[in-house]
Design a protein that fits this description.
Chains A, B: It comes from Discostella pseudostelligera. The structure is a homodimer. Chain A is α/β, with parallel strands linked by helices and about 550 residues long. Chain A is about 45% helix and about 10% strand. In chain A, strand 5, helix 13 (about 315-325) and strand 6 form a beta-alpha-beta unit.
Chain lengths: ~550, ~550
């Protein structure tokens, strides 16, 4: 039998590469004949895993090496890190599963934890820590899922849905060209929904009504998808780099890793509530250029993540002007624009800054502004709705981005609908208007209170320092770690604050993200925690108690 | 005033690069000082676009070149093509808009079209051509959007929703850990939903219940996202290539372009209903390897897109064995697995082939199988739900993919829910069971009939040849084009079948995709059309009449 030609005398699972290579040199015809023989060997094999002699021989001729292994993967993809769902979060998931098994009586580990659930403060995921969805948009979303006769036209619809939700769903179904949310939309998103975004931005920024062209708006699966798209367009090759704050939201560093671009860090100033320092921006750019890096973009996160600060209009104007002067594309992450808590503070968009300085009219700025339904007061993370508005981006570049979006067909239509509803809520006078505003207000006030509780509470712990969280959803305290921790973590091969966070998790069930995952000055240690959990007060006390024990342990 | 240092004497909008370079050499401190001065210039400028002398001078110092231009974009991204939403589709959109404007009386073009709407047969988007959503999954989806008190627990819920939809929504809400669809899910997707997928695959393939590990299933935004993820992991560098059928679905070529990998084509055999030819697979691989290409994967699309063929179990086994022998990762696009129309044909998965040949047990195959809610009889394209099942992929590679998924947080939760509902419909005996099955059957029978109407109709046109569409949603006829067309298209700079498709669109309103967008043998011309439209009969007649006129024109 010709299987002997195939080196099937060898029964080692890991064949040598030379025998594989021998295979490769066979002619096409020979391969085809062999396949027929092999297939014949299996023809009588109706059951599973029941192999006769012939097929065993065939199987033994097949290389057991694997093509796709950890070693076959690009360095860029391997290098890429994403701390928010990293080591600590994975351990937290493992413990959750273990607690679940213990409750069901199917655990065999025998491990006992001094808590009965994990408090996930590692990620800005409001609904997962008890925040309720705002009602009205959800009623419209439900009606969008229902066929007309069973939804907007159902005789009993008004018993379950308010009139203004029914009417809005009706007009959105028209905007969906009558196809409903089961059809692919325009690859940039439904035109009418993009119009809702345009009018929202114009109102927010006091811009001329109708001045924003919907062709410059792309609806995307959360802001993340838009960010990756723009970075893909910006990073031409490995000489390119993008300025990102330190600390930063790790999607930026992860995407730069993946695309093979340089991370050009600029430090935020912790002492001035994570403020911007224009000298530091100039330093960062000059240093990068001295190294031959082609700095193509700058990421600004305002309100800050993980740092929670809110920039003044002057600070925003400074950054915008910096980008204009240096001809750098400004990637403006404004997903926390509704999350501004301190009296007197107000969100001021990069777009508005550029507009007021005449840079838009003069076509002297390139700006991409990102927003999302995941944050604010809706917190609709799971719906994956977001947008990017492009300012000063040439039409031919826009077309490249459109092509990229088209290759993925479109972002999910329900997420697009949620963006529309966030940008365009019920109107004053509508039956749901008052309750809608009240619900949003209640969520906002809750966030505002917990921001204070958490940041003041953490700041009051001896050894901790925490800037006031005036925006976003996070506190980013620094934590003094005993020398023993630094030594011990070295041996374990991870950062000192990872060791701290792991100990905190295993002792208290509180899941935070080590600050090292976001970047920080050398020698600083700390973590990021959200202040979303209604347990925030308890969380602070547990962190306080644990820290004392932790320090005494080392 | 120090703005004179900035070359503001020049009022040209396009500054020379030397003046820009001069900027770059300024020290960080100087830059910071300048920013203060610039900001001061704008401080009194409350309105928009109203610039005083000082600010005009500042603006004139800003470079008007742009950082992000068509020239600054990577060749890979520029090269990337995606025909399904390419030239013809864009022209169709333009005409749709023009027709809309004409109806509203706001068109000034004066162009008259001999049709009143575009028939979009360019894309497998069933709901956009009149297919209705299957009711029951939509009822569950609606309830998932509603807060409990307004949905599953609402006193009037049973007047609008069947009991089994309410109960399913209740259990899915539990599977969402009580957070609802507004929370980020596990980055691989909700565990229970992945379990639904696993049980679905086991039933479909006659595999042992419980044999599929949900850790090997990722829920994604349609199959597209999963395909891009896997290709990202496979293409380590520009030496890598992936075998793709010719013709193929252009997402594969587009993604290979973007990642900088080689497209290693293998021809399908049109004469045998686009059948596979194992000699051709061997030829393709040998040729690529002779060129030094590291062939890491092979894409199999079954049922075929754009070609509509259904492979026999023997053919599937041949391809699986080919990949096993050559240690190539098999990317198995099985999104049309429900769309098999011919008596006697049946979908046979690559997974099942591998299982029956003992390759899974022996860990001798690497296989990634993709599925989607967009096709089949649901046609829920806009929901963007899909999955990939990994077979024989190492745990450390799985973790890299998990990290990649985590960087985008999660796919949209409603889309995940739709995957669960597709894999796990109402149970026999449930109140909706009979009507659900009947609705699915009706959609299927409609597709089956139109597949016949369209493929036979096109094949009967003199000059056309069309293989029977036994699966999927497409016909892919070849069309003889007069020599004059080939000449004319050369001058216009696009393919002859693009010229044909453009003429067809402008003459009849029928939007097809030129076959050149999918790949075909040199000298062959044709197009892809879906057979989704209820107007399929008329479409065939219009194509027939147009072809006659078109040929006589050239």
């Amino acid at each position: 039998m010709s299987h002997q030609n195939l080196g099937s005398g060898s029964h080692h699972h890991h064949q040598t590469s030379s025998s594989t290579r021998c295979w490769r040199n066979n002619t096409a015809l020979f391969g085809a004949i062999m396949l027929s023989i092999m297939r014949a060997a299996f023809a009588s094999n109706a059951g599973h895993h029941v192999l006769g002699d012939a097929s065993t021989n065939v199987l033994s001729s097949i290389p057991r090496r694997k093509r796709l292994t950890i070693d076959s993967i690009s360095e860029n993809l391997k290098t890429m890190e994403y701390a928010v769902r990293g080591k600590i979060a994975i351990e937290a998931d493992r413990i959750t599963q273990e607690l679940h098994n213990q409750r069901k009586g199917i655990s065999t580990s025998g491990v006992k934890f001094p808590f009965d659930h994990i408090v996930y403060t590692n990620i800005g995921n409001p609904h997962a820590v008890g925040q309720k969805a705002i009602t009205w948009p959800r009623q419209v979303m439900a009606l969008l899922q229902l066929p007309d006769a069973l939804g907007i036209d159902h005789p009993n619809a008004s018993q379950m849905f308010p009139e203004d939700a029914i009417e809005r769903a009706r007009s959105m179904k028209q905007a969906l060209e009558g196809y409903g949310i089961g059809a692919y939309t325009h690859s940039k998103g439904v035109r009418q929904f993009r119009m809702d975004v345009a009018r929202f931005i114009e109102r927010r920024d006091g811009a001329e009504p109708g001045s924003i062209d919907i062709e410059n708006i792309f609806l995307t699966a959360g802001a993340s998808e838009a960010i990756v798209m723009l970075m893909t367009a910006l990073i031409k090759d490995s000489s390119c780099g993008i300025m990102t704050p330190i600390p930063q939201y790790p999607l930026y560093s992860a995407t730069l890793d993946l695309l093979g671009g340089h991370k050009v860090g600029y430090y935020l100033n912790e002492e001035s509530n994570w403020g911007l320092n224009m000298e530091e921006l100039e330093r960062s750019l000059a240093d990068a250029e001295a190294k031959g890096i082609n700095v193509v973009g700058l990421v600004l996160i305002n309100p800050g993540n993980p740092t929670g600060q809110v920039l003044s209009s002057d600070e925003v104007k400074d950054v915008v002007m910096f980008c204009a002067r240096h001809n750098i594309v400004l990637l403006s992450d404004e997903v926390y624009q509704e999350n501004v808590y301190r009296e007197g503070d107000a969100f001021f968009s990069c777009r508005r800054a550029a507009d007021e300085m005449g840079l838009i009219k003069e076509d002297a700025i390139q700006l991409c502004s990102f927003h999302s339904v995941s944050k604010g007061v809706h917190g609709e993370c799971g719906q994956r709705g977001g947008y990017v508005e492009l300012v000063g981006i040439d039409e031919d570049v826009n077309e490249i981005l459109y092509k990229l979006a088209a290759s993925k067909l479109c972002s999910n239509a329900p997420g697009q609908a949620m963006v529309s509803l966030m940008c365009n809520g019920p109107n004053p006078g509508d039956v749901s208007y008052e309750s809608h505003v009240a619900e949003k207000r209640a969520v906002f006030e809750g966030l505002k209170e917990r921001a204070m509780v958490m940041s003041k509470g953490l700041d009051s712990i001896p050894g901790f320092s925490c800037q006031p969280a005036t925006g976003a959803m996070y506190c980013f305290p620094s934590v003094q770690l005993p020398h023993g921790v630094v030594e011990a973590s070295k041996e374990l091969g991870f950062s000192p604050d990872t060791l701290y966070a792991l100990d905190l998790l295993q002792s208290t069930g509180i899941c935070v993200v080590p600050a090292s995952g976001f970047g920080q000055k050398a020698g600083r240690y700390g973590f990021r925690t959200t202040f979303l959990s209604p347990e925030s007060r308890t969380v602070v006390e547990k962190i306080r108690d644990h820290y004392e024990q932790f320090c005494s342990k080392y």
